[in-house]
Amino acid sequence: MDELKLLTAFLENRLKLELPGKASHMKMVPEIRFPEFDTPPVTPRNSSVLILLYPKGKHICIVVIQRPEYPGVHSGQVSFPGGKADERDSSIEATALREAQEEVDVNPDSVHVIGRLSPLFVSPSNFMIYPVVGVTSSTPVFKGDEKEVAAIYNIRLNDIISGKCIQRKSIKLHRGIELVTPFYDIQGLTIWGATAMILSEFSDVVKEFSGQLQELSSIS
Q1: What is the DSSP letter of 85?
Q2: CA–CA dist 60, 138 (Å, integer)
Q3: What is the pLDDT at residue 218?
Q4: How many angstroms separate the Cα of 24 from the Cα of each of 27, 29, 40, 131, 216?
Q5: Which carries the bigger pLDDT value, residue 172 or residue 51?
Q6: What whole-number distance in Å separates Cα of residue 128 and Cα of residue 49?
Q7: Residue 184: helix, strand or coil by DSSP?
Q8: Averaged over 23-37, what is the pLDDT?
Q9: C-alpha span between 144 and 56 (Å, rounded)
Q10: pTM above 0.85, yes or no
Q11: Rounded Cα distance, 12 and 202, in Å
Q12: Which of 49, 81, 105, 164 counts the highest number of beta carbons within 10 A?
């Protein structure tokens, strides 16, 4: 059994248990957002993103996209494929799969949904984001939607969990506001905000899997 199959089996069980949630999110929270973690959101809009695992060469990767520049709160940011829930969606998972198909042309039938990470509230857009984790056994051929996707990137899982890519800097927002925030510096991308917080929890969970693999390797 290869590493992706082992990871899938691990996550199918692990995501049913208590998740690190806020403890992981807080590692990547911009300073300006500290107060809202103690203030429960009021009637947020529901949305989903898809964290898609897949093989690419000898590596396990996940896909992220860069949003186009536009006069909005998420202009030019790096994110997972995803978006707001629609009346036609039967579930949180259905939203994530539909949005991934619309944005990067992932066939929903090729994705095996493993589970969910902790929901995350994003105050600037009043969205409650539900991260859905899925896996596909083959390497997808992504095609970005011209209106919603400026670029598509394959991010190696090993780069995320190494911890070497986490840095801090001041970021200027579209309204001229500057904030100091931790971020992931991967492939020259600046991954911050909600995407970084979700990535932090996913990384912490996957590190548990990596620890188990190391233990098995030392025994054998």
Answers
A1: -
A2: 11
A3: 43
A4: 6, 9, 18, 14, 26
A5: 51
A6: 11
A7: strand
A8: 81
A9: 18
A10: yes
A11: 13
A12: 81
For 95-108, the pLDDT digits (tens) are 999 999 999 999 99
- Identify any residues that bridge with 190 across adjacent strands, giving them in sequence order: 185
The tokens describing 103, both together, are 């944005």
Structural tokens at position 107? 């066939």
Q: Which two tokens stand for residue 8?
A: 């899938």
| CA-wise closest residue to 179 among 121, 131, 124 | 124
pLDDT at 30: 84
Q: Tell me the residue type at 170.
A: S
What is the Cα–Cα distance from 117 to 24, expressed in whole angstroms?
Answer: 11
Least reliable range by pLDDT among 13-17, 77-81, 125-129, 155-159: 125-129
Nearest of 198, 211, 178 to residue 132 by alpha carbon:
198
Residue type (1 letter), 134: G
Q: Helix axis angle, 193-219 relative to 3-14, nearest 10°?
A: 110
Cβ proximity of 53 and 138 under 8 Å? no
Placement of tokens 């620890």 in the chain: 211
Element (H, E) at 130: strand 127-135
Question: For 88-113, b where at least 16 C-beta lie within 10 A, e where not — what string?
Answer: ebeebbbbbbbbbbbbbbbeeebbeb
For residue 217, pLDDT over 60 is answered with no
Tokens encoding 175: 């309204």
Q: How many residues does the chain have?
A: 220
